[in-house]
Every structure is written in structure tokens, then in C-alpha cells.
Amino acid sequence: MLTKLKKKIQEMLGAEANIAHKLGLTPNRISIIGFILSLASAVSYATIVPSRAVLFLVLAVGFMLASGFCDAMDGIVARMFNQASTFGAFFDSVLDRYADVAIYAGIIIGGLCDPIWGLAALAGSVLVSYTRARAEGVGVKMESVGFAERAERMLILGVFTIGAIFYLPALNYGIIVLAVLTNFTVIQRAYHVFKTLKIKNNV
């Protein structure tokens, strides 16, 4: 849903991409930095101390948003300076999956959500990406199909984390929302593939 907005934001970050390039940051290096930031977010969630919950939540959402910024920046640098590669796209995708798992695991370990809902959100998030990869592997375009692509998931988690600063159980509600939306997106994508392949086979 946010794919078009993400592309517009990427177009606005040309100056930042130029600075990153001058600093010697390649797309793969930026991807690695983003991954490290996501791990820092996960650790902030996992090691939260009740007496300092606000600080840990601020760190968690700050690191996560910074990771998201890097996730956008690596693609911009790759396109602007002709550094795009098939391996780079694959590498970035793999790190994104590990980042997603780490953050959900951090929230579950930190006791910030019901473990069942946390696992459901984790499974749904991984499968959203997996269904896209499998669909595109059989020639079905999947961009913008479904409600919970990675940008939307990060935005939802960020909003509910900020809400948790004022009311800690809000993060559990956010995980429930993500569990529902991600798994619904998997169903949407499965139906889209079924419908598209059915039409192709009938031609």
C-alpha cells in the first residue's frame, strides 16, 4: 500500500544518497548498517526494564526507524550510482528477513506481547515476503498486493511502540493487528497468484 509513497520518498533523498556515496558507503554496506540497527532495536525490546520502559521503547523505535531509513537508502544509492546487482538485492532481502525475525523475537522475549500473537505476527511477516518471492518466481508480479508489506509493518509497529510509551499494553495490540494483517495479506497474495495463473492457463 505504501509502495508509491516509498518511491516518492526515495526520490527526495538524492542529497542524502550523494553524501552516503561520498563517504564510501556502498548499497551492501548500508544494508549491513540497517541490519545492525534492527538488531539494536531488537535488543532494546528484549532487555526492557520496567522502571525505564520509556527509554527502552524510545531506543527501540528510534533504532527501528533508522534501520528503515537505511533500507530505503541502499536502493537509492544502488540506482543513482549504478551499483545495483542481483546479489545485492538478494543480500538485502535476506538481511530484511533476519531483521524482521529479530525484532519480533525481541518483543516476545521482552514480554511485551502475548507469545502466541507474537509468533503469529512473525510467521505472517515472513510468509508475506516468501509468497512474493515464490509468486515472482513463477512470473506473477506481486508489488503492492496486500495490506502489510514491510513498510506498512514497520510503520504500524513504530506507531504502536510510541503508543506503548504512554500505555505499555498498546504494543501487544499492535502485534495483534500485525498478526491479523500479515496473515490476511498472505491469503490475498495466494488468491492473487491463483487468479493470475488461472487466467494464464486459460489463454
- Going by CATH, what is the homologous superfamily? CDP-alcohol phosphotransferase transmembrane (TM) domain
Task: Please report the distance between the alpha carbons of the first and last residues.
Answer: 30 Å
- CATH fold type: Four Helix Bundle (Hemerythrin (Met), subunit A)
Number-wise, the strands total 0
User: What is the 3D form?
Assistant: flat
Give me the strand/helix succession.
Answer: HHHHHHHH
**Strand content of the residues, in percent?**
under 5%
> What is the CATH class designation?
Mainly Alpha
Summarize it:
With 203 residues, the protein is an all-alpha fold. The chain has eight helices and no strands. It has a single domain, classed as Four Helix Bundle (Hemerythrin (Met), subunit A) (Up-down Bundle).
How would you describe the overall organization of this protein?
It is a single chain. The protein has a single domain, classed as Up-down Bundle (Four Helix Bundle (Hemerythrin (Met), subunit A)). It is built from 8 helices and no strands. It has helices spanning 3-12, 14-22, 27-46, 53-80, 86-109, 115-137, 150-166, 170-202. Helix 2 crosses helix 4. The longest helix has 33 residues, at 170-202. The radius of gyration is 18 Å and the shape is flat.
